[in-house]
Amino acid sequence: MKTKAMLMGLCAVLLVISSCATTTNKTCSKILIPAGTEPFPWPEDFDNQPQPTVITPGPEDRLPPSDAIVLFEGEDISPWLGDDGETARCKVENGYLELNHTGSIHTKQAFGDCQLHVEWACPTDIKDKDGNIKSGQERGNSGVYIMGLYEIQVLDSYQNKTYPFGSTGAMYGQYPPMVNTCRQPGQWQSFDIIFRRPLFDKDGNVIRLARVTILHNGVLVQDSKTFNGSTQFEKSGSYTPHADKLPIMLQDHGDTIRYRNIWIRELPEL
Predict the structure, then answer these.
(1) 75-125 pLDDT per residue, tens
(2) What DSSP assignment string belongs to the chain?
(3) pLDDT per residue over 4-36, tens digit each?
(4) CA–CA gap between residue 269 and residue 24 (Å, rounded)
(5) Phi, psi for residue 7 in degrees, rounded to 5
(6) What is the pTM of this model?
(7) Residues 11-49: b if buried by 16+ CB within 10 A, e if exposed
């Protein structure tokens, strides 16, 4: 009976997974497992399973582990290019790079599934040229674009109200962060981003949506959330077939934004 129940449960799981694999419905994430079944049995050779790859963690959690690709360590800007495909023109000093009307920058190397660590700081001066306090999208606006298409919003959201899916840690124009955990302007902040790229079939149809998990200053703000497509201003988002790997982009939105300690780990595909 136990074996029969196990097989029935496994068949139910495979049936639901199979139906999910053939649909683009992002809500298809539920798996039906009959009560009392064991569809995933304990392996008999558990002592002989492959061991996890050993890597050396950074001396602090914010520092790159041994298998990371360092994109900016404080001085070398060579992994990045400017909008025109030439050398990035952003200012580099005191261990950070600064975007300020010098153009967005993108990595020379392309990435797909990844773990990305980025630290950033918004300007301390929050007044316009007339001495008025800036508000909304006018304060510390930038963005981290995964694959150059899927934006994680950077903004000074400290005591600064804006439309929710345009605030810090938002999947821009699509989903707001779960909480606002912004520090005061001028203080260093961090994103830890886990990204899974979309999959397309041979006809260009989406068979798996892009998905992201984000920690902002160590706090969970996006929990394995799917993108509706590429992120755009005043558009709901849509998918267009693209390469398996594309560059990371840091947006120059016209505000003075500083970035430092940027590193990435390529993840094995699921």
Answers:
(1) 999 999 998 888 899 999 999 999 988 899 999 999 999 999 999 999 887
(2) -HHHHHHHHHHHHHHHHHHHHT---TT-------TT--SSPPPTTGGGSPPPPP-PPPSSTTS--TTPEEEESSS--TTEEETTSSB---EEETTEEEESSS--EEEEEEESSEEEEEEEE--S--B-TTSPBP-GGGSS-EEEEETTTEEEEE---TT----GGGSTT-BTTTB--SS--PPPTTS-EEEEEEEE--EE-TTS-EEE--EEEEEETTEEEEEEEEPSSS-BTTB--------S-EEEEE---SS-EEEEEEEEEEPPP-
(3) 444 444 454 444 444 454 444 444 556 788 887
(4) 19
(5) -65, -40
(6) 0.84
(7) ebbeebeeebeeeeeeeeeeeeeeeebebeeeeeeeeee
Given phi > 0 = left and psi -120 to 50 = alpha, else beta, which region is 4? alpha
Contacts of 192 (CB under 8 A, 6+ apart): 115, 116, 117, 214, 215, 218
For tokens 């495909």, the residue is 85
Q: What does the chain come to in residues?
A: 270
> pLDDT, tens digit, for every residue of 238-264?
999 999 999 999 999 888 999 999 999
Both tokens of 132, joined, read 């008025």
Domain 69-266 CATH assignment equals 2.60.120.560: yes
CATH 2.60.120.560 boundaries in the chain: 69-266
